[in-house]
């Protein structure tokens, strides 16, 4: 399935991920955590399908359990003592629950990052930071290009070396290692010489002059503005809720969460909507597509 | 990133901003963590501090309006480091990244060393997956390159195999291992305690050791030829020593 959230302006994508990552790291209230975790999981399924199911089940669930166990072993705060370990340290209910919450937070962040890796491609990143950090983002884009290029060039060099019997697959172990180092050395010389040529070419084409353009052109159109407006509204709502203490959660010495009130329910809904924006956008797009399709 | 508009007219203003960042923003963040966030968000706060420490480097570099040749040599070294990390993906911790970063610091200066390290850490995670560990890796690689550059300038580090290998092994074991383990502790427990930190150091010791040994091995084999090549390029094309 095509992800229509990815087709939005990079700034919308980036703002979304910064905000959800930030909120996921800061909010420890169980309802906020569950909202973030569910949204992250749903969006990762939407983006990556079966691969996400495997990733989440195979790595994230054991990881969550492992971390939930690790915390009470090292942390003995809390008033509700369940039992004592062999070395005399108590295991408390609070530290177990805190371990679960911390693990949940970390897993959510990892799943958000797995979505980030799909949506925020490197050209979008460079588009956003090209204005703020022009030199560094140029280095980023060059390195991204150089890596596959060098790996291809190593093959070329190694094939040439094979013709004269000096590849890493030829000779005894010592000779192989020596050949490998020779190939890397040839590669480095080539890379540096080639780089200077690239630099001179860039200079003669006017690198560093004003009016630089990007490889990918993104336009902030009406759709992006609406999305930004909605996101800003929801962020403000959640931030007000956070400032009013709706997300307060205390684990030690005893567990105390802020109570559920009509206002807090409103904040939960705002947070849920914020986290679900890409999923909602995808669903609306899918419905639009179906309705257009069925008319014809 | 509100400091982006400061063009490098005067050095003092830049230094002032870096000072502001270190003496005002970082303590303010720590206080925010203690009072507003109830001293429970160690990971979040430490992440912010790690990001702050990298901002002055980025600012200084951008304000200098670097030449294309300088940019591209940094990019080449970072790309070699990333390709090296990719080439040895099947051997955990056995990576040439730190070795290349140290070589960059020694032959191109502390600033270039930091940038090669930070960029290599950042870009390699485009291939391996970004995550909350990215800023920590960037910072650790970067700071090793920076230290290598400074030590070389002060004469504590020589362009000899022995000197580079000793520095590389110690830097990987103590600086990289020392910082990255704090980072992973913050990620895994979000609850700081000294015993947990000690456990992390002990359990990670052999990983750090393998990493340090790999750095020494790579430095032993590639340091001299790489430095020679870089020096040759510098002389041939008249790249200015930073």
UniProtKB/TrEMBL annotation, chain A:
Signal peptide (from-to): none
Statement: the UniProt record of this protein carries the keyword Endoplasmic reticulum: no
Protein topology in the membrane: Multi-pass membrane protein
Subcellular location as annotated: Membrane
Organism: Paenibacillus etheri
Keyword tags: Membrane, Transmembrane, Transmembrane helix
Transmembrane segments: 12-45, 57-84, 96-119, 125-147, 226-245, 265-284
Protein name in UniProt: Cobalt transporter
Keyword GTP-binding applies: no
Main subcellular location: membrane
Lineage, opening ranks: Bacteria, Bacillati, Bacillota, Bacilli, Bacillales
Lineage: superkingdom: Bacteria
InterPro entries: ABC/ECF_trnsptr_transmembrane (IPR003339)
GO cellular component terms given for this protein: plasma membrane
From TrEMBL, chain B:
InterPro entries (UniProt xref): ECF_substrate-spec-like (IPR009825)
Gene Ontology cellular component list: membrane
Transmembrane segments: 16-37, 42-59, 71-91, 98-123, 135-152, 164-189, 209-227
Alphabetized UniProt keyword annotations: Membrane, Transmembrane, Transmembrane helix
Pfam families: ECF-ribofla_trS
Protein name: ECF transporter S component
Organism: Paenibacillus etheri
Lineage, top ranks: Bacteria, Bacillati, Bacillota, Bacilli, Bacillales
